[in-house]
Automatic annotation (TrEMBL):
Protein name, UniProt field: Golgi apparatus membrane protein TVP38
PANTHER family per the UniProt record, alphabetical: GOLGI APPARATUS MEMBRANE PROTEIN TVP38, GOLGI APPARATUS MEMBRANE PROTEIN TVP38-RELATED
InterPro entries: Golgi_membrane_TVP38/TMEM64, VTT_dom
Subcellular location: Golgi apparatus membrane
Coiled-coil positions: none
A single BP term in Gene Ontology: vesicle-mediated transport
Family membership: Belongs to the TVP38/TMEM64 family.
Role, per record: Golgi membrane protein involved in vesicular trafficking and spindle migration.
Topology term for the membrane: Multi-pass membrane protein
Keyword set, alphabetical order: Golgi apparatus, Membrane, Transmembrane, Transmembrane helix
GO cellular component, one term: Golgi membrane
Annotated ranges, domain VTT: 97-212
Length: 302
């Protein structure tokens, strides 16, 4: 039986990968032109970034990042520079939230955690308020005509703060689009969104810690004084921290999906539409995205 199970595992993995691949392809085909261009632009960006790392070399990039971080840490108001950048990158379609958190670790070690935490809180709150004020008319029009968003609002209104916190802790949608997502949902109050953001603090702490470990490995002078055991230990701790964050994020994402799809007192159809709305949030709907027209709206009742 154990042998059969071991032989069946690769097949199970292959089947799952095939299912996810088919689902991703189907979702891509359903995207409009704007969204497809966004996908290809993202792929090109990552390809260019990978090529840059290969050509320039990780050592030179790490040393440059370390030198830059040290310059910031020696400025009297270096922390304010990082804090201000958090405000900027919290708006879609900016990227780099996790990188900036890691940079706080590079520059200040674990003392960078308060900067990263406060910057994330302030940036997300400002984004929430600004987007909701700027797009209030579009928000009202969207929520009246899009059945997926009506479903999502119904689900969040039914579950309240616990579900908001679970979605906030999930890696999907990403940071900036999560900010836009909650700004788009009328039933979510600013205080709820603010409190829910505290659940990302453990993840922030992990990446600040990883940044502090990578800083010592990135500096050639410090690295030259390390023995092999110390280098391996620092690398293992850094990789382990990232893996822990990734596994925890995936578990939270699965829990979030399960929670949305199995809410008591709400029909399965509404649950499914709400889950689809979460998946589409990466495109910035409804505040920033351009989507295909929704199906005929129907009245959602619990």
């Amino acid at each position: 039986m154990a042998v059969d199970g071991a032989q069946g595992l690769p097949r199970l993995v292959f089947v799952k990968m095939k299912q996810y691949g088919a689902g991703a392809l189907e979702r891509y085909r359903n995207l409009n032109t704007y969204s497809k261009l966004f996908v290809w632009g993202t792929l090109c960006l990552y390809a260019a970034l990978g090529s840059f790392i290969i050509i320039v070399g990780p050592d030179r990039i790490g040393q440059t990042l370390y030198n830059f971080a040290q310059k910031i840490s020696h400025y009297p108001y270096g922390w304010l520079i990082l804090f201000s950048v958090f405000l900027v990158i919290s708006f879609p379609p900016a990227v780099g939230h996790t990188t900036l958190i890691t940079l706080c670790g590079y520059a200040y070690g674990m003392k960078g955690f308060p900067i990263a935490a406060a910057g994330s809180l302030a940036g997300s709150a400002v984004t929430f308020v600004v987007l909701r004020l700027l797009f209030s008319r579009r928000l009202h029009k969207w929520s009246q005509s899009n059945e997926k968003w009506q479903a999502l609002e119904t689900v969040i209104a039914a579950k309240g703060l616990p579900l908001i916190m679970l979605i906030r802790a999930s890696p999907f949608p990403p940071w900036v689009y999560s900010n836009a997502l909650f700004a788009s949902i009328q039933s979510v109050a600013l205080w709820q969104f603010f409190l829910a953001t505290f659940v990302v603090f453990p993840k922030i702490a992990i990446f600040v810690f990883v940044g502090s470990r990578l800083a010592s490995l990135s500096d050639g002078e410090q690295r030259s004084h390390m023995d092999t055991t110390t280098k391996i230990l620092n690398i293992s701790i850094s990789v382990g921290g990232v893996l822990i964050a990734a596994v925890a994020s995936w578990i939270i994402y699965r829990l979030m999906k399960k929670e949305i799809l199995h809410l008591e007192g709400i029909s399965p159809e509404i649950d499914e539409l709400a889950a689809e709305a979460i998946e589409e949030a990466e495109e910035g709907a409804p505040l920033l995205g351009h989507h295909s027209e929704s199906r005929t709206s129907f009245e959602l009742t619990a």
